[in-house]
Each structure stands twice: as C-alpha cells, then as structure tokens.
Amino acid sequence: MDLSRADREARIRALRETLDASIATGGQVSEAEIDAALDAADRALADRFPSAGDDGEGRPSSPT
Predict the structure, then answer these.
(1) By 3-state DSSP, what share of the chain in percent is helix, strand and coil, each rounded to 5?
(2) Residue range 19-49, pLDDT digits in tens
(3) 39: number of CA atoms within 13 Å, CB side?
(4) Sign for the pseudo-dihedral over CA of 53, 58, 59, 64
(5) Entry pTM
(6) How many domains would you assign to the chain?
(7) Is residue 14 in some structural domain?
(8) 1-13 burial string, b = 16+ CB within 10 Å, else e?
(9) How far is C-alpha 56 from the chain's CA centre?
(10) Of residues 43, 41, 39, the one with CA closest to residue 15
(11) 58/38 Cα distance (integer angstroms)
(12) Domain extent at residue 20
C-alpha cells in the first residue's frame, strides 16, 4: 500500500486524536499489557509489510 503524504498525515492526526482522547479519559495499564499490545502490533505490521531481509520475526536476517 502506497500512501500519499496527505493520507499519512491524516492517519497520524487520527492516531494523535485517539491517543489524546484515551489519555484524557485516564485508566491504568501495566507495563506487561503495553508490551503485549506493542508486540501484537509489531507482528501485525510485519505480516502486512514483509521485508526481503526479514527473519520472520521483524528482525534483519543474518548473512549466511
């Protein structure tokens, strides 16, 4: 998927608004919950946008 600059900026604005609204409502989350959410997002992005030099875990593969 190739997004235009305007599309990327619109997505960033929407994310910022979502984050600001979430922060405003408060709530508690543990470090483990944050780690799990970031790991899940990382896996989803790696699945959606695989890299030729990717080891399948989102890390650069080692030269053989």
Answers:
(1) 60, 5, 35
(2) 999 888 887 888 999 999 999 999 998 888 8
(3) 7
(4) negative
(5) 0.42
(6) 1
(7) yes
(8) eeeeeeeeeeeee
(9) 16
(10) 41
(11) 13
(12) 5-48
